[in-house]
Amino acid sequence: MGDDWRIDPAIRGESANRQIVAVAEGQQAMIHRRQLLAIGLGSSGIDRRVADGRLHVMYRGVYALGHRVVTLKGRWMAAVLACSSAARLSHRDAGALTGMRPPSGSRYEVTVPGSGGRNLRTIRAYRNVLQPDEVTVIDAIPTTNWARTLIDLAAILPPHQLAGALKQAEHLRVFDLNQLQPLLDRHMRRPGVPALNRALEEHRPETHRTRNDLEDLLVHLCRQADLPLPTALNASLYLPGVGRIEPDAIWHHHRVIVEVDGFETHGTRAMFESDRIRDAELQILGWRVLRTTWLQLERAPHEFLDRLRRLLRTAG
Predict the structure, then answer these.
(1) Are 88 and 111 a contacting pair, CB within 8 Å?
(2) How many domains are contained in the chain?
(3) CATH number of the domain enclosing 284
(4) Could you read off the pLDDT of 148-200 as tens digits, one per residue?
(5) pTM as predicted
(6) 296, exposed or middle or buried, with CB in 10 Å at 0-12, 13-18, 19+?
(7) Torsion of CA 18, 142, 83, 30, to 10 degrees
(8) β-bridge mates for residue 120, sequence order
């Protein structure tokens, strides 16, 4: 959908009816009046098609093609078209389109740059400038991408619903902190960003932790539990058949390794498979690997320490 409502030159040679169908098929069966005019229809031609049922009015200047039964995606598309050619589905509805939350069933939410757009009975227009790395197109519907949508949702959702959207983003394998962080930095003063940072901290504590934090915590927990301290932290270790590795913590005498898994380093299928293969090779060489997470270390340290104690005892 071009900003000036131009018609694709590839269909310019077709008849008016074929052009209308081609445009609407690429827009969830929706078409804007300006697109109809660009095709060559006059006002009387548009009115005639509305009268005989070939076009159905969705909003002023926005029409559904051919039938009155409109899908949810069609209604989203109509709401975007009703606001402007540069509008994007956003907030709750973008969350539903991306799969991060269920449809809200309320007014359709659309972000429009500058002072464009209009609030209607079924449309809530937010006025904001969106950057190229904040938008995408899903099923032909221009929309904010998952990262910008999370920032927008953080300003309007209660904490438990925002946490649910985060969890679903990870389930869908769309979450990427490297993509989200620049937007958080760019919009640090926007409403919702502090709430999203808190949700990230709660949902994945490792995203705000450093290796030094991990070293301090492991040493502190071992001292508290009167366990042997690791002989090396984040140190390089070469093992035949495995190669050079850099575990989070090593107990050389006990041949025990502790790895604290975080989503950024262990959240893909390839890394998951690689970790399991490496663990199997280490076991063959007589090493044992205890995997944990920041969440477990901070919320259930006694369970982690009990497992580590038993492992060191049997390995020693």
Answers:
(1) yes
(2) 3
(3) 3.40.960.10
(4) 999 999 999 999 899 899 888 888 888 888 889 899 999 999 999 999 988 88
(5) 0.65
(6) middle
(7) 30
(8) 123
Both structure tokens of 208: 């705000």
Note the residue count of the chain.
316
Identify whether 127 is part of a domain: yes
The residue behind tokens 């008016």 is 16
**pLDDT tens string 249-293:** 999 999 999 998 764 554 455 666 777 788 888 888 999 999 998
**pLDDT (tens digit per residue) in 212-234:** 777 888 888 999 999 999 999 88
Instruction: Give the pairing type, strands 88-89 and 108-112.
Output: antiparallel
| 88 and 195 inside one domain | yes
Alpha-carbon distances of 31 from 36, 62, 76, 168, 308, rounded to whole Å: 7, 6, 13, 32, 64
In a domain, 287, yes or no: yes
Same domain? For 219 and 291 the reply is yes
Q: How far apart are the first and last CA of the chain?
A: 67
Does residue 245 contact residue 278 with C-beta atoms inside 8 Å? yes
Domain residue limits at 108:
80-203
Residues 219 and 282 in one domain: yes
The CATH number that applies at residue 41 is: 1.10.10
Same domain for 149 and 65, yes or no, is no
